[in-house]
């Protein structure tokens, strides 16, 4: 899957920064050098030093996955087509019900 080219610096994602950390690690930069480089080029967007250190460790230990690991708990999006239709049916049947 081809990724889109960022139109501006603000389009950068966590995945983009993780990829940069990985590349700089492969260029034999230290954790602090990587952090300073990201801060220099992306002062308002760059991850904290502790984040750079965590991903540096992950890459050193062989975890090369750039995406977040799945998490348990409530999903980020609790609405879907089915839930929306059920809510609309309830509101339509009883006008005293609100959706808020």
Automatic annotation (TrEMBL):
A Gene Ontology BP annotation from the UniProt entry: mitotic DNA integrity checkpoint signaling
Domain of life: Eukaryota
Recorded GO CC terms: condensed chromosome; nucleus; site of double-strand break
Residue runs in coiled coils: none
Record-level Gene Ontology MF annotations: DNA topoisomerase binding; double-stranded DNA binding; histone H3K36 methyltransferase activity; histone H3K4 methyltransferase activity; single-stranded DNA binding; single-stranded DNA endodeoxyribonuclease activity
Gene3D superfamilies xref list: 1.10.10.1450
PANTHER family assigned: HISTONE-LYSINE N-METHYLTRANSFERASE SETMAR, MARINER MOS1 TRANSPOSASE-LIKE PROTEIN
Protein name per Swiss-Prot or TrEMBL: Histone-lysine N-methyltransferase SETMAR-like
Organism for this UniProt entry: Oopsacas minuta
Lineage of origin: Eukaryota, Metazoa, Porifera, Hexactinellida, Hexasterophora
């Amino acid at each position: 899957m081809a990724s889109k080219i960022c139109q501006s610096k603000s389009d950068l994602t966590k995945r983009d920064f993780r990829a940069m950390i990985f590349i700089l690690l492969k260029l034999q930069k230290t954790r602090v050098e990587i952090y300073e480089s990201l801060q220099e080029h992306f002062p308002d967007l760059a991850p904290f030093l502790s984040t750079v250190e965590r991903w540096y460790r992950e890459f050193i230990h062989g975890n090369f996955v750039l995406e977040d690991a799945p998490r348990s708990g409530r999903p980020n999006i609790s609405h879907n087509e089915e839930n929306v239709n059920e809510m609309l049916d309830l509101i339509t049947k009883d006008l005293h019900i609100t959706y808020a």
